[in-house]
Design goal:
Blueprint (H helix, E strand, L loop, with lengths): L7 E2 L2 E2 L8 H8 L7 E7 L9 H10 L3 E10 L16 H24 L5 E7 L2 H11 L4 E5 L5 H7 L2 H8 L4 E4 L6
Parallel strand pairs: 3-4, 3-6, 4-5, 6-7
Antiparallel strand pairs: 1-2
Helix pairs in contact: 4-6
Length: 185
């Protein structure tokens, strides 16, 4: 059996099967369908805008073209704004653990929703600088695609706040699918 590669041309895959219909392509042709993306990384920052990437991931997964979705939340512990004095000692490990626990609970909620739709999902909560941690994770874990929503900043806001999504796009050797927030409103 030769495999079918689900690349599309004008809404139809190269063998004539409808895009997003991997199961029926296999039935119709008798050939197995290779998943285009074995591992898809979806970085989330607990915002509604970041979750705009999820409908696109569901579309890809629903078509049978994703093997596994990896939800990633990067916790950046910023100690700059925390006052310290001789009388007040901050337990940095407790702070770190609290942020990571909150991150895990958030991702588990998203994960359970995707699993209920039949999507194979795992989640990771890591500490670090968001853009660099996303890029490093993707490259060290053989990720095939990163699906990330932009926050839609333009002009001065974009210059002031930057964009994790654009830094990931610039620094990653893994293909990146950017989702504009307008697409999910």
């Amino acid at each position: 059996m030769s495999p079918i590669y689900p690349f599309s041309l004008f809404g139809r895959s190269l063998d004539g099967c409808m895009e997003g219909d991997a199961a029926n392509c296999k039935k119709a042709t008798g050939r197995r369908v290779l998943k285009m993306y074995q591992k898809v990384l979806v970085p989330l920052d607990s915002s509604e805008l970041a979750e705009c990437a999820l409908p696109e991931v569901k579309k890809l997964a629903g078509g049978g073209f994703i093997g596994e979705v990896i939800l990633l939340n990067v916790v950046e512990i910023d100690l700059m704004g925390i006052p310290t004095t001789h009388t007040r000692i901050i337990d940095i490990n407790a702070l770190r653990n609290a942020h990571l626990d909150k991150s895990r609970k958030y991702l588990e909620k998203i994960q359970s929703g995707l699993i209920s739709e039949g999507i194979k999902v795992k989640n990771e909560s890591l500490e670090g600088t968001p853009a660099q941690t996303i890029v490093n994770y993707a490259e060290t874990n053989a990720v095939d695609l990163i699906v990330i929503a932009t926050h839609g900043y333009t002009g001065m806001k974009k210059l002031m706040f930057g964009s994790v999504a654009l830094r990931v796009l610039h620094d990653s050797h893994v293909p990146v699918l950017l989702i504009r927030p307008e697409s999910c409103r």
